Amino acid sequence: MEWLFLVVSLVAVFAAGMMLTRRNAVHSALFLIVNFGCVAFLYLMLDAPFLAMVQVTVYTGAIMVLFLFVIMLLGAEATSDTTGQMRWLGFAGTAVAILILLIFGFPIASNMLGDETVEPLDSTAQLRVINAIPAEPGKAFLLADAELECADETVSALSGGLSASIFLTAAAGNVPDVLFSDVVYNDPRDQLRGYQELASADYAARASVSDGNCVSSSILEQEIAFAKDSAHTIVAFVNAAGVVDIRSMEDDISEPSVGKMRLTLFNAVTDASISLVDVGQYTAIQTLCDDSACDSLLPHRRLIDELPAGGSVGIELNEGDYNLAFVDSEQNVLRVLADYKAERGIVETRLFVREPGLPGNQASYRANVFSVLGAPSFGGPEAIGQVLFIDYVLPVQLVGMLLLVALIGVIVLARPDALRQAERRRINQRRRVNRPLVSVISQQTGSDVLSGQYLAKLPGGSDDPDAE
Amino acid sequence: MMSSIGTEPYIMLSLVLFLMGALGVLMRRNAILVFMSVELMLNSANLALVAFAQQWQQINGHAFVFFVMTVAAAEVAVGLALIVNIFRERQSINLDDLQQMHG
Q1: H or E element: which one contains A367?
Q2: Which of the residues A6, A8, A20 would you substitute to probe the B interface, choosing the one with the greatest number of B C-beta atoms within 10 Å?
Q3: CATH of residue B80
Q4: Residue B62, in any domain of the structure
Q5: What predicted TM-score, i.e. pTM, was given to this entire model?
Q6: What's residue A311's pLDDT?
Q7: Is the per-residue pLDDT at B24 higher than 70?
Q8: Residues of A in Cβ contact (< 8 Å) with B35
């Protein structure tokens, strides 16, 4: 890798030097193209494949072609390039450049040769809260590391001093967008996943589901170690007994293996473990099959994984279509995911819950999707698109305006001598003569047509001074 | 392709290329070559941005590179149109000939 960088960078510097010293502007432009190509290669080495392609198309493609076009259009291949008076400027500039190179380059080079390397930023831990309680007005899910007295008071007390206590609240039925007012996302994908950044430390997390009347219906007290780079999800749900329950699980946020997707399932049905089975190509499984009929209905089923009661499991699926079914310990099909499409690179979190108040059939179970995320790779077009069109929407618009203005400016500038052409048109027009024709004739011929014998012969004569 | 040589060599190369571009702006009198030197400087800045983005694993640096590229493209288009106009006017693009604003 080092020799590769060395070769490419030497070629880049050589091409830049040749560009500076060539007399012929076309040669300079061609060497600059070589330099840009080397930089594009370095982008590839720096995990920026999309920028490398943009570099090739925009710089070496569009911009340099424009340069070459203008050079050849003007015939300016070898225009005079000599400075008249300020010859010393070149030498002074070279000296200053070498000086700057020494001043700035020496620390970098010494750092490069020594083994003292700069460590990347410490990543913080991540936490997200999923409220899977069926939506009821006034019911919110609170997580705090302080004593929880009353929901409203806690909100006002804790949100004032976030540094002292961690406080999260989630409205019923969804993943909250922003819990803290000053959340900083190191990775824009975390915003899509619903994670919050926390300083990595051990927290005594106290989660509580409370309604608006300061009544906590369930409290979870749990030591959660927010280790560096770890991610946790705290789920509030209604368990099988109809009581609000809270569990926390640690998430695997790494990218799935090549060509696979990761499906994280959380079993919020706490009284029984559930199996996820692949039922194969069978299509008639939309109907409920009870205990006795299942063996004949689902002959090719294959166990994928077991979901322990109140626990989570991460499954990696190969790309393709699946017919998945959630089956309880007595082989009852609780829920079917027919034609489930597994796409590579996707990270999906689903919560398997029982809806309260319904008898135990398929309709009362749901496998709710809580986050689906195609994991864009660093430097890929998807990641750049996300950061450009989520974080930098306004600058993108402004740059678009700039391009529009530049376009109009170029069109105005490039019109072939717009002003002078109008002038020429005015000149070429037939000259309007305000003076009587005879005075023109007399001026140009030198003979005095207004007097004497010529006047009588001219039709109309000088009677009409505004003729023509 | 994971880079195993650290960020410093890239910053070093970026510094060298930037200084070469600056020298080109100072020394060459051909307006087109001055423009190309400016492009060289912008490119070296881009290289530094991408190197730092890789070091910190922050995609924001790539977004800035995009903006720089866009501005560079707009600048080149307008600048070359100006050069074409100046050449039509004076039959020369030597910067020393453009002294009508000389005090």
Answers
A1: strand A365-374
A2: A20
A3: 1.10.287.3510
A4: yes
A5: 0.55
A6: 77
A7: yes
A8: 67
